[in-house]
Write a structure and sequence with these properties.
This protein has helices at about 5-20, 130-135, 210-215; strands at about 85, 95, 105-110, 120-125, 140-150, 150, 155, 165-175, 180-185, 190-200, 200-210, 225, 230-235, 245-255, 255, 260, 270-275, 285-290, 290-300, 300, 305-310, 315-320, 325-330, 335-345. It is mostly beta strands and about 350 residues long. Strands 1, 17, 18, 19, 20 and 21 form a six-stranded antiparallel beta sheet that branches. Strands 3, 4, 5, 6 and 7 form a five-stranded antiparallel beta sheet that branches. Strands 12, 13, 14, 15 and 16 form a five-stranded antiparallel beta sheet that branches.
Length: about 350
């Protein structure tokens, strides 16, 4: 049985996650790989800075379906009051990803590998349940599915914490055999960035990377790291933003991330966030005004973004074929009913 942290701590964690947690290519790191520069971040409780072995090897996470309430009704495109559409002739209209990914619960914050055959995402069984309850349900977290015969397989939960300890992980970015993710967990106050390594088919050796990421110094929100580890893109409402959140980037220089630069061409007085790049690095995708926008790299500069998909969609991730995966929310008035992973296939 999971240990419970004090109710007050859970409530604070819930508030922080609700504000911050819920929002990508992979190649082998080059000779410039800076992954050895990670430093542990001092915390109020230092005993949890590195992962500990899972003592109970018999632990099997419960099925995510076992936590979905019977009164939740699956939403389909024919029921959708605000279906997303493509606003560019380059793409077909978006559709739910085929297969077993989507449920009556909430699928969110997806990340597709460049080959288009592996999809990571965040899942919680009920989008209307308070976050402080989600963190204790044993199924909320990061999942992975594989494309088999053009359909996505039954997803598997990725355990990034000892099952006897509370954690809520999300906003994942996968590069080769490393996963970067945001998390709230026992031993830490608030939201932090972590990484874990894929060893013998299991994600393990998690470690806090706040110092390396300059999480608090640069006020780093949801992010994307280029596969060569040379650029960090993130959203933040840090000083210097045009209004609300803006997209910023930082370059790896002299063994650390340099001072963030505001990408003025893509930012406005509106709220821009959830950046990702196409695998070839020539497209910057962002979320803005309940839609997904794209900026193109032209002669070394980012162009003014163009809205590509709307409404009620965000957190894009792109495979090497140009197919765009994202989160679409179903609403009835002001009530969110569900969140699903959609895909917009690029036309030949």
């Amino acid at each position: 049985m999971r240990k419970l942290v004090p109710v007050l701590v859970i409530a604070v964690i819930g508030l922080l996650v609700a504000v911050n947690l819920l929002g990508g290519g992979t190649e082998t790191p080059t000779e410039h790989d800076n992954t050895e520069t990670f430093e542990e971040t001092p915390e109020e409780s230092t005993e949890e800075t590195e992962s500990t072995p899972i003592e109970d090897e018999e632990y099997i996470p419960p099925s995510r379906y076992s936590k979905i309430s019977d009164d939740l009704v699956k939403q389909y495109p024919e029921d959708d009051l605000n279906p997303p559409v493509a606003e560019s002739d380059e793409y077909y209209d978006p559709v739910p990803v085929p297969g077993l990914v989507n449920t009556p619960g909430g699928e969110d914050s997806s990340f597709v590998l460049p080959d288009g055959d592996t999809l990571y995402f965040f899942f919680t069984p009920n989008v209307r349940v308070p976050v402080e309850e989600q963190i204790t349900d044993e199924v909320t977290g990061i999942y992975v599915s594989n494309l088999v015969n053009d359909e996505w397989s039954e997803p598997t939960r990725i355990l990034l914490q000892d099952p006897d300890k509370l954690a809520m992980d999300g906003c994942e970015v996968i590069i080769d055999d490393m996963i970067y993710f945001g998390s709230v967990r026992e031993g830490y106050t608030g939201l932090h960035w972590f990484k874990a390594e894929l060893v013998d088919g299991e994600w393990s050796n998690w470690i806090c990377v706040d110092n390396w990421m300059k999480t608090f110094e640069y006020e780093v929100g949801e992010l994307y790291i280029t596969p060569d580890f040379q650029q960090l893109y993130f959203h933040s409402d840090r000083e210097g933003s045009k209004g609300m959140r803006d997209i910023w980037f930082s370059t790896w220089t002299d063994g650390e991330w340099g001072e963030p630069v505001n990408i003025e061409a893509v930012n406005s007085e509106s709220d821009e966030g959830w950046p990702c790049l196409s695998p070839d690095g020539t497209e910057l995708w962002i979320s803005k005004d309940y839609g997904i926008w794209r900026s193109n790299l032209v002669e070394g500069n980012w162009s003014e973004p163009e809205r590509m998909f709307s409404p009620l969609c965000g957190e894009a991730t792109v495979d090497s074929k140009g197919n765009v995966y994202f989160t679409h929310h179903f609403f009835d008035g002001d009530v969110m009913l569900e969140a699903d992973i959609y895909v917009a296939y690029k036309k030949p």
